[in-house]
Amino acid sequence: MSWHLNNNNTNKDNAEPDGEIFNVKPVFILESDIFGSSKPDKNNYLTHTELFKCIDLTIPANHLNGLQRVIGGVWRIYPDSEEDRESIVVNSITVRKKRIEVYPRNPKYVEKESPITVRIRIKNIPLSADDGQLVRYLQNWHLEVLNYHRERLRIDGFLTNCQTGDRIFHCEPFLHTIPRNVKIGKYRGLIFYKGQINQNNTEIECTKCLQKGHKKTDCNNDWKCKTCGANGHISKDCTAEFNENSQVDSEVSSEESDETSEDESEKGEEIVLSQSTEHLLDTPHTEETS
Length: 290
Description:
Blueprint: H1 2-14, E1 27-30, H2 32-35, H3 48-55, E2 64-70, E3 74-79, H4 82-91, E4 93-95, E5 98-100, E6 118-123, H5 131-140, E7 145-155, E8 158-171, E9 181-184, E10 187-192, H6 240-289
Keywords: Metal-binding, Zinc, Zinc-finger
InterPro entries: Znf_CCHC, Znf_CCHC_sf
Region (Disordered): 245-290
């Protein structure tokens, strides 16, 4: 019994602290990308062993520190280096003959107001075209492409093998604008992403920020008031007009009081003049009498 205790103590002393082997942030996959919206039966559950073998085709299995399934059908994958983490995000993994996306953050908890990645959709490019030239096109715009996949048709909640022709790219956030109508090689395609300014239709005006080139649904800016032009509130909550009217009323009241005082002073001057006139008229009469 004492031998087991000493052996355990020795192992604890020589073991690496648990936190140090998980210093690389995990990546995530969703079971909904595999099974769709329907829940599989127990015989078709995704297991640790199966997923471990699938990941081994993308990065070496001995580079994997952990696999964890959490509530909601989300899997955490812990690689042991940043290089392996980037590789598995960019290359994705294939599970049950389906290539599924690997997310750098848990997509169930990423805030839409401040996205970690930008989702770009490229349309109208033939399915026979090489995806590599699409990646190179985005890289020429100085975009960092994290991963991409070909969209597949979903029927009754199930993902089919039929491709729609759209390519989905996940990139690091960027500030410049990618045009909507583009020419990639010998093909002409369309690019769409949230917050995109449509240079081909600059007359579109956003009803939220009042800028041109995008709609309210694609706007990430703050609200702008149509009455005063300030940010942070809308016209129905604007107090500028009320304050302006109050200032006008005060100015009008002050002008009225000034006019009243002027009228009173004029009346006083008339009284003084009338009295002085009477005095002048009375003076000669007094002298004659004297």
